[in-house]
């Protein structure tokens, strides 16, 4: 039997006269809160959409919103070099007019229009006002789902910078697994640095290992070197997992005399980059550490999407369409496709939605049972009976409770998963054999084909924006930040806020409901 998502006690909230006990649901970033119901004399589920960040807020206090916003402002304020060292700003060298910065032809300073981002510019993080915690996808702070503005910092070039470009040495490193668009981001970082006037740009090879494995030398980078690297997939600098000894890395940063480090990676890389930033602060180094989130899994909090995701979804279409053709042409054909997504089902959900051919979409966030009248296998029987074939799309992290746990981890400490695709294939085959119905199961696992391709057009644009904004963030003196897109606008976020947890598909969201509408699948529990 598949288990319901596990829950931990996460504190209590007060709402009016009610005192609610709240539990964190492990597959979501929400809390479920229960309160005593006088009528039934039992604890009842009162609300299931309170943000996990503030279970301690007293909502009966009329000032709670102010308190929340103050705290939010602190959490999302961007760490800056001047917080720990004396650094003076200077006028930017990043010219939007390809002429002397901030000057007209006659030499007078141009005040009216400048095209730079003001340090006080903000972007609204949440844009829906949910009328009730029961609204689809509701993400509430208090049990009444009150509207509270949550502002984050806008990304982009500032008028004032904190480095003298001609003396800057900048490094770029790509960590974790591959992702379409890595080369596009590297390229944009290099050309933007050059636009500021930076001449010393180097690539660190094979992730964090490149900092201390001596045979991995620095790769000099320039517009000329990176000109065409976006035409191929992979990483021009190489990637790796593991090998993040923070103190050694910071020693290496000092020895190399790096002033800026651009770190491209997922959750693990962001944790590493933040630790590097903290160590640099401790040593009072004038070094900016800026991340660009990279993951086909789209599992980074707060962002609309990460680069590479769209391309991976597109690459998955070939596998899904092939499985469909095979299943459709075979007698009682069942196509089964397993797609990447260690703990989040975004690729599988979006690929299923995009193809429109999938009958059953299985993701880690939504538990399912295989056997019994409500199970996946019974529904497959129904599909074979009614339409003669079926197509299943499963995320690699789904249904792990059905598989033997090995407790093995990769070099970065990520859990090595069991193969749900092979398990499902065997279960489906033996089920149809047992009930005496012919079936022809065709299993496709495209694995790395999803991420070893070059970025598609929309990801290439996203990479361009992110790469450029990363450089603007470093020159603006921020460190320990990452850059992303929130509600279509470009922002800087402090790293700890995006790695509080993995981002999951919300089973109460409209997108998951759309997927269910499209597949027509029932609840498998
Ligand atoms: N908590 C952590 N603290 C410091 N460093 C970490 C942490 N977790 C992972 N790292 C380091 O970050 C690098 C990348 O981590 P990981 O292999 O998990 O990839 P990732 O960035 O999460 O990307 P992907 O989406 O491909 O998994 C590795 O060198 C790893 O050692
Ligand atoms: O085999 P590797 O390189 O460790 O990468 C596998 C993992 O990388 C991811 O694509 C994330 O980048 C996961 O979906 C997958 O489990
Ligand atoms: Mg990871």
Automatic annotation (TrEMBL):
Pfam families: PFK. Its cofactor is Mg(2+). GO terms for molecular function: 6-phosphofructokinase activity; ATP binding; metal ion binding. It comes from the Eukaryota. The record marks 268 as: Important for substrate specificity. InterPro entries: ATP_PFK, PFKA, Phosphofructokinase_dom, PKF_sf, PyroP-dep_PFK_TP0108. Substrate binds at residues 295-297, 340-342, 396, 448-451. Its main location: cytoplasm. One of its GO terms (biological process) is fructose 6-phosphate metabolic process. It is an enzyme of class 2 (transferase). Allosterically activated by AMP. The keyword Signal does not apply. Keywords: Allosteric enzyme, ATP-binding, Cytoplasm, Glycolysis, Kinase, Magnesium, Metal-binding, Nucleotide-binding, Transferase. The keyword GTP-binding does not apply. One of its GO terms (cellular component) is cytoplasm. Pathway: Carbohydrate degradation; glycolysis; D-glyceraldehyde 3-phosphate and glycerone phosphate from D-glucose: step 3/4. Belongs to the phosphofructokinase type A (PFKA) family. PPi-dependent PFK group II subfamily. Atypical ATP-dependent clade 'X' sub-subfamily. Homotetramer. Catalyzes the phosphorylation of D-fructose 6-phosphate to fructose 1,6-bisphosphate by ATP, the first committing step of glycolysis. This is ATP-dependent 6-phosphofructokinase. It comes from Panicum virgatum.
